[in-house]
Amino acid sequence: MEYRRPSLPGRRMRIHSLRVQPIDLLAVDIDFTLVDAERRIPEANARALRGAREAGMHIVLASGRIASSLRLFAEELGLPTPLVACNGAFVLDEAGDVLADHRLGQEVVEVVVRECERRGVHLNVYADDKVHFAQESAMAEMYLRRARRSVPVILPWAALTRLQPNKLIAVGEPRILEDLRLWAEEALPGGSSVVTYSEPEYLEFLCPDCDKGTGLASIAGTLGVPRERTAAIGDYLNDVPMLAWAGHSAAVANAVPEAKAAADVVVGSHEECGVAEYVAMLLKNVGK
Fold this sequence. Notes:
There is one protein chain. By secondary structure, this protein is of the alpha/beta class. It folds into two domains: about 160 residues, Rossmann fold (3-Layer(aba) Sandwich), CATH 3.40.50; about 100 residues, 2-Layer Sandwich (Hypothetical Protein, Haloacid Dehalogenase-like Hydrolase, Chain: A, domain 2). The chain contains eleven helices and 14 strands. The strands form two sheets. An eight-stranded mixed β-sheet has the order 5-4-3-2-1-12-13-14, with helices on both faces. A six-stranded mixed β-sheet has the order 8-7-6-9-11-10. It is globular and about 55 Å long.
């Protein structure tokens, strides 16, 4: 059965009651933020982002997805957007030039791949702007249904250990993933990776020196946008660094408590087009 995240209680605040800097750059998470439950961009959100761009605001798409998947969303929006892919491990400017390309250490890759094989846990290996995994499974099918736009490369488990990925994702039932997370705390060398959830069924193994916040900072620096004139919106644990770094930030109503705590405001859920609501607030606040 497909997971549908329930809305969590949170205080709704109106940004026009706050004093914030004019915003020149807005970073938007994809899943459970920009897109609806069917992983499609609602027209209200698309229209709002196009309007923000016309008003002079740079739009950044920030996700755990690979860059090629994000490009399809950018094309659907019809916008030239910098991309923060793989949770900040792979960052591109509007022209498609690489600003950051962080790779997991080979020891981490080998240990995690072998442990997932031993446990029978499905593992996605994100390398060279492709998603690789070892076998078809129920969890692989679930991931592909959700991702919609990804075509995987199937390789033997041994071949996965030789890749140099930006990140790994174990896909499974939450109970199984929590056991794997506890194993990782003991088995992986300290400082070798960051292990976090991006959805209840996705346990990510990330490079320790990057996240969505560092990705946003890299793009802002390239564009000459000061931190206080940046904004971000998201919903989950992997969005927290981005929400905390941005000059102003919002969490959608369906966000986890940690994301809401990191954000300045809470807007409507992903099903209520919270992105469009936030964009309208930002533009109204600066009189655009």
